[in-house]
């Protein structure tokens, strides 16, 4: 490969490029690498992509980056992925971002996360966004959180859910909050539970309510607890019921008591 001129490299057919091994890719000089077109970059195999060196990744142009598909992006090693600058991440297409693995997402720095557009956030796969950690969640802007789809919400780890501020949670749409799984509801801190509005409490289904711990039940505000329907009260587990505070019990309506 080293003997090829930039002109010769640019003349390689997509089929020839797809046959390049990691060793071939790693051996390309900066001049040769810069000569690769978007079409040629798109033809690289997932195996070949793993040969990209830090220098080559640093030299990737926007045109080259936008040619990568999800499979190619997904093939990047953790070391390779970490070398992408915030600007380069911002240049990726939604298709490319869809290739982020859980390991990729977990390695994102606050600066890299901030560089992601709402389109990028919505394009993350459920397996990819599952890698988001509690430490990373605070780096998400209100606009970015609003872009998280219901499917992505349901894929968030308990750790990521715990990283949401009370403002983040109250700012979720009904569709987003309704996507919470029982495991995620159980992961809410008492502070987060206390911040739930009546609309959000009304979205808790039987499985969600059954997952509430005694401390979470006790954390429901007076207004929040009063908004529970008889059906919801009945869904609380025996353990959850033990968390009822004196204030909550004394304010229960006849309808709630009848549950």
TrEMBL record:
PANTHER family: DISINTEGRIN DOMAIN-CONTAINING PROTEIN (PTHR35245:SF2), PTHR35245. It holds the Pfam family ALTTAQ_rpt. This is Ice nucleation protein. It comes from Phenylobacterium glaciei.
């Amino acid at each position: 490969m080293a003997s090829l001129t930039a002109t010769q490299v640019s003349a390689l057919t997509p089929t020839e490029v797809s046959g390049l091994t990691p060793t071939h890719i790693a051996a390309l000089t900066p001049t040769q690498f810069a000569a690769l077109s978007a079409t040629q970059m798109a033809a690289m195999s997932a195996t070949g992509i793993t040969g990209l060196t830090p220098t080559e990744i640093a030299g990737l142009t926007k045109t080259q980056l936008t040619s990568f598909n999800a499979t190619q992006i997904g093939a990047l090693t953790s070391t390779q992925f970490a070398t992408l600058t915030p600007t380069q991440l911002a240049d990726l297409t939604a298709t490319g971002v869809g290739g982020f693995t859980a390991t990729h997402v977990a390695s994102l720095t606050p600066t890299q996360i901030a560089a992601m557009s709402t389109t990028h956030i919505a394009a993350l796969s459920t397996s990819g966004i599952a890698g988001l950690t509690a430490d990373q969640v605070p780096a998400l802007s209100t606009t970015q959180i609003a872009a998280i789809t219901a499917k992505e919400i349901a894929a968030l780890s308990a750790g990521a859910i715990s990283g949401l501020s009370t403002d983040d949670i109250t700012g979720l749409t009904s569709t987003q909050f309704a996507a919470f799984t029982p495991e995620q509801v159980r992961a809410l801190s008492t502070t987060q539970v206390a911040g739930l509005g009546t609309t959000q409490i009304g979205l808790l289904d039987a499985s969600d309510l059954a997952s509430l711990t005694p401390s979470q039940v006790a954390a429901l505000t007076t207004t929040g607890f009063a908004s529970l329907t008889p059906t919801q009260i009945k869904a609380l587990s025996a353990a959850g019921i033990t968390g009822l505070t004196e204030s909550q019990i004394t304010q229960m309506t006849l309808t709630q008591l009848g549950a």
